[in-house]
Amino acid sequence: MTTAHAPVVSIRERYRDAVSDRWPVTVMPQPDELLSSWLHRLAYANGVAPKAFARVLGLNPGMWSAALDLRLPADIASLLRAKTGVAPDQLAALTLSQDLPEQFLLPLRYNGHRDRSAWLQFCCRCWSEDAQPYFRRRWRLATRVSCTQHGCRLRDRCPSCHGCIAVFDQAELVPQHYCVACGYDLRRAPIPYLSPETRTLDRCIDNICSLEAIARAPSGPVLVRRLLGMPGAGGYYSAMILTSLSTAARAYCADRLSRPSEWPLDYATDDEKDCKARRLQRLIPPTNDHCAWIELLANALGRRRGRPVVSEGNELGIKLPDLLGAYARMSPGPGRRVVQELIGT
Questions:
Q1: Which residues contact 76 (CB under 8 A, 6 or more apart)?
Q2: Of 157, 93, 94, 95, which is closest to residue 124 (Cα–Cα)?
Q3: Where are the domains of the chain?
Q4: Which pLDDT value is given to residue 20?
Q5: CB half-sphere exposure, 246, CA atoms < 13 A
Q6: Closest Cα to residue 45, out of 71, 85, 84?
Q7: pLDDT for position 185
Q8: How much is the pLDDT for 337?
Q9: Closest to 68 measured CA to CA, from 48, 46, 97
Q10: pLDDT score of 241
């Protein structure tokens, strides 16, 4: 007969002494990660559901993490630095405070209207490749309807229940890529079709609409107004502005604007077309001339309904499809080597 050995009990340090003042698990921010996304991942890694994590930070429930994206109070920033060891400059880089145009941020709205905007978008292809799926900061922009890396259209709703993204309201301990309402794995969401013309327009707008470029360009305010007015310029959703529409509705507006078939027919002769091509080549500015590109895009968006051009002359009267064609030749899309970048050259 074998005698069972009694368990050995030893005195070890207290748990709170072992982890010091830090939370048990530290999660490092990912490239271009949104602050709320990092907070959700941090909560999950430490065994706390996002909805309950609001109380850990001394906040009330609701869109608590989305509000922190816009403004991170000093006391919460100090708490996060102390509990995670993440440097102040890393925390600041997660917010929306500096390098994204605030006029184009999707509003903090959480409703069930399918054609109305939700506060956040996602790319299911990015998430299927991420070791830990996370939200990118640029997915908060209304001017962004496609993924920079994959070129596919973004989503702002669950394809299963059509609910908006609401990780801040997640009461269960599950990763943030699962729908709060129905539990659907958003990595499996079908990829919506997006035309090549729309992808080019989306990439062009994203590249030239940095906050710094718009702020210093004389035509910057005009471009901001015309981008926000794209629904009306496209002949659909005319009573609404860009930030009030869903991702699908904004993609539809961009598609109508960017397609050559949506513009008046061109009955020019071959000689006139050759002359037009040479003129277009002459008017396209260098990639580092941000002000000129902003003016060209503002003019092209304003010509749909006889709106006046930004400049006094007629030289800049370029149709949007022609402008996008010239831009596409200068800046290849995702999946190919980019020869020249509009911003940062």
A1: 57, 58, 59, 68
A2: 157
A3: 35-188, 196-330
A4: 56
A5: 17
A6: 84
A7: 97
A8: 36
A9: 97
A10: 92
Rounded distance, CA 213 to CA 290, Å?
Answer: 6
Sort 18 into a burial class: Cβ within 10 Å, 0-12 / 13-18 / 19+: exposed
Taking the mean position of all CA atoms in its chain, how far away is CA 259?
23
Spatial CB neighbours of 198, under 8 Å, sequence gap ≥ 6? 145, 146, 251, 254, 255, 258
* Polymer length in residues for the chain: 345
Distance, CA of 144 to CA of 104 (rounded, Å): 9
Alpha helices per DSSP H over 26-149: 35-45, 50-56, 64-70, 74-84, 88-93, 124-129
Count the alpha carbons within 13 Å of 153 in the hemisphere toward its beta carbon: 22
Amino acid at 198: T
State residue 96's pLDDT score: 92
CA–CA dist 309, 122 (Å, integer) = 35
Residues 6+ apart with CB under 8 A from 112: 162, 163, 164
Report residue 207 as tokens: 């590249």
Mark out the alpha helices in 46-108 (DSSP H runs). 50-56, 64-70, 74-84, 88-93
Q: Which two tokens stand for residue 280?
A: 């277009």
323 half-sphere exposure, CB direction, 13 A CA radius = 26
- Asked if residues 95 and 162 have their Cβ atoms less than 8 Å apart, the reply is no
Low-confidence ranges of the chain (pLDDT < 70): 1-20, 111-112, 234-235, 260-283, 303-317, 331-345
Of 239, 236, 260, the residue nearest 249 (C-alpha):
236
| Separation CA 68–CA 30 (nearest Å) | 17
pLDDT of residue 3: 55
Q: Answer whether 332's CB lies under 8 Å from 294's CB.
A: no
Classify burial at 339, counting beta carbons within 10 Å of its beta carbon; exposed 0-12, middle 13-18, buried 19 or more. exposed
**Confidence (pLDDT) at 302:** 82
Place of tokens 């800049």: 316
